[in-house]
């Protein structure tokens, strides 16, 4: 099942460390099948507020997201980002678009009440 590493970065910076992080991150993703699906860019806010930007990286599985994040290669560059950008990072498993049914999910939630 596809899983994602998602970062909501509330601040942005063009610090030299951030540029180095950007130059080096793909090499840390490749062994784990990670690929950017969202990497910054303009955001159209239609409800609430959204300070900052969004980054989403897709991986073949949750195991691979965790292994990438804990890998020595990624840990070596992580401080380049964390010293200069404020934000939140999560890992989350996706749903199977061929079988996910929101109505069935609602029915199961109702049944638990």
Automatic annotation (TrEMBL):
Domain of life: Bacteria
DUF1330 domain sequence ranges: 2-95
PANTHER family, per the entry: BLR0684 PROTEIN (PTHR41521:SF4), PTHR41521
Protein name: DUF1330 domain-containing protein
The organism of origin for this protein: Virgisporangium aliadipatigenens
Species classification: Bacteria, Bacillati, Actinomycetota, Actinomycetes, Micromonosporales
